[in-house]
Design a protein that fits this description.
It is a multi-pass membrane protein. By secondary structure, the chain is mainly alpha-helical. Helices cover 77% and strands 0% of the residues. α3 packs antiparallel against α16 and α7 packs antiparallel against α14. It is globular, with a radius of gyration of 21 Å.
């Protein structure tokens, strides 16, 4: 698998996508942590207000995902990615200028969070729908391993950079660097050429992308009629809801109860991303030896249980040590889960439905995140941040056990999942017994 990864990186179009995604994702991850952190550090916001800023970044997922799916299936992916990169960089640049002219306000943070979140919805759907157009099914695990490694590395570096920038250099420098990252991504994406679709598929009327409401409904029917994708949707949504509640409560717990600096809190959260980097790279190297379904299931359960363990052990040990160990374990397991989850989601839908199915998937998996951020902030206000961590950790662990009943456990190889029949015209669903045969 290591040789397959090297071969992909030698391919110019994939290398440009990979490099541009690395810079764009780092810029987004830095901004994602920077905005609520500014609410805590610069404005002294309450837990509920901090949760509101975090939630504002995810609200567009609920409002715009289905629309983004239709756009992704019909527009040039390169153009969609370029426009979204420009919008995100410009929004952060405007934040720096507005701060210099008028000072920082909660409404300013909310507005920028909504703009960045909206552009990210369109960017992610277009970018993720483009990957199967560049890679063959047997290359998806290796390619997604490299791309998930980027995601994991930026999850680690983004919070750490945001915390250090705010602590040491202040808001103007933090915004300038984040904007520069989006500018670098724009340069990398500029010469990118992504096929708009499969010419053979597009030549037949059945394979042409549908329009408007019909495209949305077709993608929704496929997503919920396909048992493997439905299970991944539900589990990812439940995990993201709990994770946002946990991270919002932890941000407040670390600063106000454990006495940690903003930089330390960012570094601790970044440890999870370091673990995810290790997990995603490792699974890319060992894919041929691993059973995809069992590895995916174990990854989600371990990732969830590590959060519960951290919340329960925090009062008895040093905060930094307990949470760094738990976040590391969580990250490794989650990196493994994500490589397989993304690859299966890309290989199962028909090519003409990739954008619509990706949008539906993201709506269900990321849509609960704003609610999770709000719940975490409200629980921290009502019961205390420590209690909020315990409730979030135990609840996500119980929810992850539901995946043990999924037919996904029988998928041996990602490419074998392609043989699963699609839902029929009358809404017939996949036969889960065929998965992994």
């Amino acid at each position: 698998m290591a040789s397959e990864q090297r071969a992909l990186l030698r391919r110019g179009v994939f290398r440009r996508l990979w490099a541009g995604e690395a810079m764009a994702r780092l810029g987004y991850r830095t901004a994602q942590f920077l905005l609520p952190l500014l609410a805590v550090v610069e404005l002294g916001s309450s837990g509920s207000q901090t949760g509101l800023v975090s939630a504002a970044q995810f609200v567009p997922v609920v409002a715009l995902s289905l629309t983004a799916g239709v756009f992704a299936d019909r527009l040039d992916p390169r153009r969609l990615v370029l426009v979204c990169t420009v919008v995100r960089g410009a929004a952060l640049g405007m934040l720096g200028l507005s701060y210099a002219a008028f000072g920082l306000t909660l409404w300013m943070l909310l507005a920028v969070a909504l703009v960045v979140g909206s552009a990210t919805v369109f960017y992610d759907v277009g970018y993720q729908s483009a990957i199967p157009k560049l890679l063959r099914p047997q290359e998806l695990a290796a390619g997604n391993s490299l791309l998930q490694a980027v995601n994991s590395a930026t999850q680690m570096a983004g919070p750490a950079l945001a915390g250090l920038f705010v602590s040491l250099a202040g808001l103007p420098f933090a915004v300038s660097v984040t904007t520069a990252l989006f500018a670098g991504a724009l340069v990398s994406f500029w010469s990118l050429r992504i096929p708009a679709g499969d010419p053979e598929t597009a030549a037949s009327p059945a394979g042409r992308p549908q329009r408007g409401v019909r495209a949305v409904l077709t993608g929704m029917r496929f997503t919920w009629g396909c048992r493997p994708i439905r299970d991944l949707c539900v589990q990812s949504g439940l995990f993201n809801l709990h994770e946002q509640a946990f991270l919002t409560a932890f941000m407040i717990y670390g600063v106000r109860e454990a006495g940690l600096s903003a930089g330390t809190v960012g570094l601790l959260i970044g440890v999870a991303s370091a673990g995810a980097l290790v997990g995603s790279v490792a699974v890319g190297r060992w894919t041929a030896r691993l059973h995809a379904g069992r590895t995916l299931t174990a990854g989600l359960v371990i990732a969830s249980a590590s959060l519960a363990a951290a919340a329960l052990a925090a009062p008895a040990g040093p905060t930094a040590v307990v949470f760094s160990a738990a976040f590391l374990c969580n990250g490794v397991a989650l990196g493994v889960y994500n490589v397989y989850a993304v690859s299966l989601r890309q290989v199962l839908p028909p090519r003409e439905l990739l954008g619509a199915v990706t949008a539906n998937y993201r709506l269900v998996s990321l849509g609960p995140a704003p609610l999770g951020a709000l719940v975490g902030g409200v629980l921290a206000d009502l019961a205390g941040p420590g209690e909020a961590l315990v409730w979030a950790g135990l609840s996500v662990t119980l929810c992850s056990l539901l995946l043990l009943r999924s037919p996904l456990k029988r998928v041996r190889r990602v490419e074998e999942a392609e043989a699963v029949p699609a839902p029929g015209p009358a809404g017939d669903t996949h036969d889960p017994k065929t998965i992994g045969r």
